[in-house]
Each structure stands twice: as structure tokens, then as C-alpha cells.
Amino acid sequence: MVPLTSSLLQNDYRKLSMQCKDFVVGVLDLCRDTEEVEAILNGDVDQCPPSPYNRPCLSRIKLAIKYEVKKFVAHPNCQQQLLTIWYENLPGLRQQSIGVKCWTVLGVTVGLPFLAIAYWIMPCSKLANLY
């Protein structure tokens, strides 16, 4: 009898887990603007350590990744927020074609070692400030 009860409990927990996952995705569906999405994704900002670059902590996304809640992480509102953070220093790159993006990545990859050496040799130069 014990295995049967255990099996029933496992099924109940699986159903509850799926309901919770569907609930959080439904909450993201109800967001009307970016502020609401940020509030959901950042969680409790009082418990997040302050970021040196004023970036959001995204604690709920980190939890969703940790517990493999793929529907939540793949939600368009969540992806939009991640893309905004990813492209924050290159706003025009987001609208470019895939070819321009590849050339940009290649240029940065090739140029980065030279910039690092220049920074190491001349840490107070204009190039170092740009870097």
C-alpha cells in the first residue's frame, strides 16, 4: 500500500508544480508595461545586493533557470527584458542584420587583445578611458 500512496502523492505534486508554472506564466501574460515585468523579474529588490552598474538583479529569472521553468524564461516579456539588458550599450545593433552583428562580434573579438595590451601599457590615455 505504501508505494501506491507515494505514487499518488507524486502525481499530486507534479500537478501542483505544473499549476504553479502555468500561474507564473499567466502573471507575465497580464503585465501591461515594462515596469510591471521588471517588478516580477527582479523580485524583492531589498534583498538584492546593489549592482555597481545599476543593473536589475533578475532574481526570479535566476530562480526559474535554476529550477528549469522553461515556460517562464522563454516567455516573450522575459526575453524582451533580457534583450534590453543584453543590448543596452549597443542600442543600434539590435536592429541590424545578422551579417552586421557577426562582423561586429568578429571585430570585437579580434580587437579586444590589442585594446587590452594598449590599456596595460597606457592606462591613463584617452583610449583607456574609452575602453
UniProtKB/TrEMBL annotation:
The record's keywords, sorted A to Z, are: Ion channel, Ion transport, Membrane, Receptor, Transmembrane, Transmembrane helix, Transport
Q: Which residues cross the membrane?
A: 102-122
Its protein name is Short transient receptor putative channel 7
The protein's gene is named TRPC7_1
